[in-house]
Amino acid sequence: MARKIPEKWESSLKAVKAVQVAFDMDEKIQLAIRKEALDAGFSPSDQIRDILGLPTNKRPKRPRLTVSLAPADYELLAKKYDLSPDQQLEIKKRLMDDLVNHVNNNDK
Questions:
Q1: Is the dihedral of CA 81, 86, 89, 90 positive or negative?
Q2: 3-state class of 3 per DSSP?
Q3: Most CB atoms closer than 10 Å: which of 20, 51, 65, 105?
Q4: Residue 86 has pLDDT above 80, yes or no
């Protein structure tokens, strides 16, 4: 007996059936496509879709940067900021300040 998919998941069915394709290309080509994507405000994936004439998601995406932090990273950062490793929200705030300061100092 087939299970009924929850209604809130139905919109994700197409994405579940999609297959990710990876391209092993010359680094120069990859860099050029990434730069084009950045200039266009696209993700590299959307830029590739645009180049290939495929539809892209026109909804604006929330601009964000990500980094993966292991428990050991939190320990190092806690020492750097004189915090406890379990103060992850405060560590995140300090990281954001460091990133903003980095960009502001490099723009001068």
A1: negative
A2: coil
A3: 51
A4: yes
15 vs 102: which has the higher pLDDT: 102
pLDDT digits (tens, 9 = 90+) for 39-73: 988 888 899 999 999 998 776 666 678 899 999 99
What phi and psi values does residue 73 have, to the nearest 5 degrees? -65, -40
Cα-flanking dihedrals φ and ψ of residue 5, to 5°? -80, 135
Q: Are 58 and 43 in contact (CB under 8 A)?
A: no
* Residue 48 near residue 66, CB atoms below 8 Å: no
Among the residues of 8-66, which ranges form H helices? 13-17, 27-40, 44-51
Distance, CA of 85 to CA of 66 (rounded, Å): 19
